Amino acid sequence: MDSFSKVISIRWSDLDPNYHVRHSAYYDWGAQQRVEVLNNLGLSLKVMQENHFGPILFREECVFRKEIHMHDEITISLFIKSIAEDGSRWTMQHILTNQRGELCATITIDGAWIDTQKRKLANPTPQMVIETMKKFPQLA
Predict the structure, then answer these.
(1) What is the pTM of this model?
(2) What confidence tens digit (pLDDT) does each residue in 44-67 have?
(3) In degrees rounded to 5, what are phi and psi of residue 101?
(4) Cα 26–99–12 angle (5° rounding)?
(5) Element (H, E) at 74
(6) Cα 127 from Cα 55, distance rounded (Å)
(7) Residue 128 near residue 38, CB atoms below 8 Å
């Protein structure tokens, strides 16, 4: 698998007063895609709740390259940029391209897993996490 990709539906509420996509919509798209991908790989919110863990972000950065407008067809692709051997910490990157294949933005996040009861960093059910995270395509 080359990447986890999907076409984004741009909503009226995603626009700002300049009639292009507002900056915070990019972060919303990234978060939604990550939750959907984890769910599809078996790390659903229910599994995380039952095992008392969840993802936590240390950094989230978007680099804007090209404006996105209401009728653009945008594809967002998700990759693992780096991952600790035990799967406990990771960097993911979203790449957003338009219908012409032009780079519109990249979103980079650094994250880890948190024990939701202890409220401390943890490596939950290591084998499950490692196996799931290995299914992500690596960014070259």
Answers:
(1) 0.91
(2) 999 999 999 999 999 999 999 999
(3) 80, 10
(4) 45
(5) strand 74-83
(6) 16
(7) no
